[in-house]
Amino acid sequence: MSPRPAAVRVGGRVGPAVPAPPARVRALLADGVRTLRAAGLATARQDAEWLLAEELGVSRLDLYTDPPAVGAAAARRYAAALARRAAHEPLQHLLGWEEFRGLRFGVGPAVLIPRPETELLVEWALEFVPPGATVCDLGTGSGCVAAAIATARPDARVLAVELSAAARAVAARNLAAVDLIVANPPYIPTGALPALPAEVRAWEPRRALDGGSDGMAVSRRIIAGAPGVLAGGGALALEIGEGQAPPLAATMRARGFVDVTTRHDLAGVERYLAGAFGAASARGARAARARPAAVRRAEGG
Predict the structure, then answer these.
(1) Largest separation between any pair of C-alpha atoms in the chain
(2) 223 phi and psi angles, rounded to 5 deg
(3) What is the spatial distance between Cα 179 and Cα 252, in angstroms, rounded to a whole number?
(4) Is the dihedral of CA 78, 83, 86, 87 positive or negative?
(5) 23-95: CATH topology
(6) According to the 3-state scheme, what is the secondary structure of 114-158?
(7) Degrees (nearest 5) of the Cα angle 247, 173, 133?
(8) What does pTM read for this prediction?
(9) Burial of 131 (0-12, 13-18, 19+ CB in 10 A)
(10) CB of 266 within 8 A of CB of 239?
(11) Whole-angstrom Cα distance, residue 169 to residue 120?
(12) What does the pLDDT look like over 135-163, one tens digit per residue?
């Protein structure tokens, strides 16, 4: 993939003239264009429109045809985004996404931004894919190539391989986001294992029982890793040990889970813990990720 700076591709044709935006939006756009032009950005107007539209949760066209009210907090966030863009931080990092072959992918500093020339690579590569093929996207980055091939050829099995852990996390969000993770992890403290009944202690696998010194080591790892594969609003549900609900619920909230709740088992023990990752925001809904079912992620090491 080319290392050149990537430009957001918006597609579409030149349409009829649109009316001038209301004064508040017009003033913010003008300020943005001046700031970005002073920074030497050739796409100053386009970038200012993208940043303001993203902040307000509308399309660029809506800025001219149906603009919402702009509060003081939104104006401040827009100004902060302009400052970052003026420092030549990629627009895609500020928006959080880029489009590739009609699909939208989350991007960030851990991966290369998808570029138009790589779309041509996919187009050519598709000519080599026989029916029912297994395809490996080596160095998947954001996962855009794997997803594009899987979308074009749903009969193929596509493996997305990535060495970088940070890049794998991005690819996981783009390719393999799930709506629910459910787990019954080991949750018995190591020191309590000798007191278990002999039928359990001697015959059941220790790795399925031993939850570390406080019984919560595995649960904490699951809570820490779940946001990397959960879709926005996706849920995590755990079975936990007695007395573990308060600290693990606090851990979930600290990791961005909301609506964290518990339930009791038949003996009255607070045994189950669940929560949703983040709120289903309008912005998250607009930036819905492409997650072709045919894509399977294979982690490199």
Answers:
(1) 80
(2) -65, -40
(3) 16
(4) negative
(5) Helicase, Ruva Protein; domain 3 (1.10.8)
(6) CCHHHHHHHHHHHHHCCCCCEEEEECCCCCHHHHHHHHHCCCCEE
(7) 135
(8) 0.60
(9) exposed
(10) no
(11) 25
(12) 999 889 999 999 999 999 999 989 888 88
